[in-house]
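Summary for the lay section of the report: proteins are chains of building blocks that fold into shapes. Here we show the chain for Alanine--tRNA ligase and then a coded description of the shape we predicted for it.
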Amino acid sequence: MKELSSAQIRQMYLDFFKSKGHDVLKSAPLIPKDDPTLLWINSGVATMKKYFDGSVVPKNHRLTSSQKSIRTNDIENVGHTARHHTLFEMLGNFSVGDYFKEEAIAWAWELLTSEKWYAMDPDRLFITVYPKDQDSKKIWKKVGVDPTHIYEAEDNFWDIGQGPSGPDSEIFYDRGQAMNNLSEDDPESYPGGENERYLEIWNIVFSEFNHKPDNTYEPLPHKNIDTGMGLERLVSVFQHAKTNFETDLFMPLIEKTAEFSNGYEYGKDATVDVSFKVIADHIRSITFAIGDGALPTNDGRGYVIRRLIRRAVMHGRKLGIEDAFLYKLVPVVGKIMQSAYPEVLEQADYIKKVVQDEENRFNETLKDGMELMGQLINETKEKGLDTISGKPVFKLYDTYGFPVELTEEFAADNDLKVDQAGFKKEMQAQKDRARAARSDAKSMGVQDALLTDIKTPSEYVGYDSLSATGVLKDIIVKGKVLNKISDGRARLIFSQTPFYAEMGGQVADTGVIKNSTGEVVAKVTDVQHAPNGQNLHTVEVRSAMVSGEEYQLEVDIKRHNKVKKNHTATHLLDQALRDVLGEHTHQAGSLVEPTYLRFDFTNMGNVTDEQLSQVEQIVNEKIWENIAVTTTVTDLESAKKMGAIALFSEKYGDVVRVVSAGDYSREFCGGNHVENTSEIGLFKIISESGIGAGTRRIEAVTAREAFEYLEGQNNLLQTIAVDLKIAKTKDVPAKVESLLDNVKQLENKVQSLEDKFASQQAENIWENVQQAGGHTVVAAQVNVSGMNQLRQLADQWKAKEISDVLILATKAGEKKVNLLTAMSANTVTKGLKAGDLIKNIAPIVGGGGGGRPDLAQAGGKKPAGISEALKQGVQWIAEQER
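The coded shape description reads as follows.
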């Protein structure tokens, strides 16, 4: 076996399958595109769904990749096991209806054992097969595998539910008994058993069945090959490492962390090693996720990033690292991965800033967490218990980032234990909530062979003309291909078409189809791409249409031109946002409609009104500069050299279209655009908001819609001027400011009168002190405006020491009640709490509330219950003496 670096191992894999006719795909971003079933890209095949379910047919049916992936479902295992990671790379080769078992098995064996490639010792390789898949077993023997090295295993069947499924073969590498954690004669010491000797390095799935919705299986119309080989564990084999962490993928990070630590070294103490491993693992995920557009937040992907950062910081503290340090590891990750992912180093400054800001924020939060920890320990001891409850331990873990093992350490220092069962119960409840919130869409669709098999050539000519003749090639109705149709809904493919198929955020064209006499025979309502790339027209048929005949296809020009203006405006907006917010900002989605545009983009914080105004001004300046918009068709590398902005989430072919607005904006784009920015006329932002973790959304209008929007705003302003009896609209702001000042003065006067009225009422209610058991109580309904006045009365009561307990209520509306309870300091020391009292009487007025031991408040919806609530409150006080 050769001595290889991780970069060499990755490249050799890709080179091998490239030599077998595979296209090498660049690793897709970790944030899935158009897949609600996934929070992250979690495997190599996750990026191949559209090919395997037949919704898209790739140009080359042989594909290979090294796909970065994230899985955090059992994050607690990281650092404690030899090969568990949150971020990993999956090497894979894929056949979409092309080669099958013979080639997949032969090539796997060649890559692993050939002297030209990995040169592994065949005697160290073992294979498992599905018992019913005797074909694979025969092929493994045929390529040279020792029959005694082939094992049958019932679980060798890959099935994730509805969609493609099939038997698989796993390949194991024998690392030798010296690496084993079991005795050689242990029942689990075999390939596929729970042991450290036989390491699974590759899984080859023979996807040959459709798992149907009714849980039956039928042969796939097009059989596929899907393989996965974890780079990290493969590197551990080549580098003779006991775990994945003692490899060139992790050791530079571990060594750098040791420099920051308080004298700790890796490999000296197993407990300390866990912290080194967690930090090295987590910073890889953090770096790549932020580089792909995720930001730390309180939900979704952002929550995962925040949690990883906090776990790593806490483990840093266990190594004696008090200050922010994670951000300093970002360039180390970039250098390790530079050969395959140069963009990490290119974005290092941005990623570092995000990580450092979050570290600093967490260090502040940590103070609160430490205080809560102290309270938990004290409360547990005060109650005479020896175990801290699982629920607050989970809160420490979930809210403050305390690993449960750290809480256990603090507890142990105080002779306490942690309720692990309660903690796990809360953890499971959170997982259940997350699972319930996730889309229930299946991971992959069932193959539709009909559209996949239609390979009729079809050309899009809409860049040059919005009217064209085309021969009707295919008529598809309800899953069948017909020769003719007289009415109803159908999907049509023509030899050529001017209709744009929805793509890249631009909506599809609509229009009509005419026959040779000029009669409108169909109305085009939508156009999408068929699996083999043809424009698939969804139509409402009005008159007979026959396959093989020629028709006139006419796009709705007025609608199309409005879409063009909005599309070009999104390009100008994209660049303007970069100019104002920074180069870290990039497009996260768009929608180009005839009447408006929507543009999603990444940004760490809110966008100020001033920044929005700047962006809007820049876009309009570019419109008024009459900039020519040009399109260049060129190869991918030339386009990149031109400086064209590419969406990292998109896959581009060898030939690409670059749309340029002079020297200002230059982007990869297959959509339709104006010839000159002046055609857009006017650009107006109508809203800006946050839509998710680190993602903002702008909605805007152009041309006529922008004018109509501004005209509407002007009409509204004129109406206000008339109502305010002002001659000129420009004087409206000053008049409004004057009115607001008057309102504020009147509010102050009202507040003063209400306070005076409340004080007058107080003189009366303070005289009515009741006895309730051993306590004195004031319980009364007062006529004040709300909770503020009740609190003022409570302040007076407290200052004058009128009674032990205070219960006040007021009717604050037809269906609104405010309640307040208070206890004197002496009463609180006797064990009575205002919060307990309010919880007992609030339901009587149809509400609920809480508060401190000395003061609590509540709201309700049943004013009729006030009298009974006061009565019950006094009774509750009396009962506390018993």
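Put simply, here is one thing we learned. The two ends are 83 Å apart (CA to CA).
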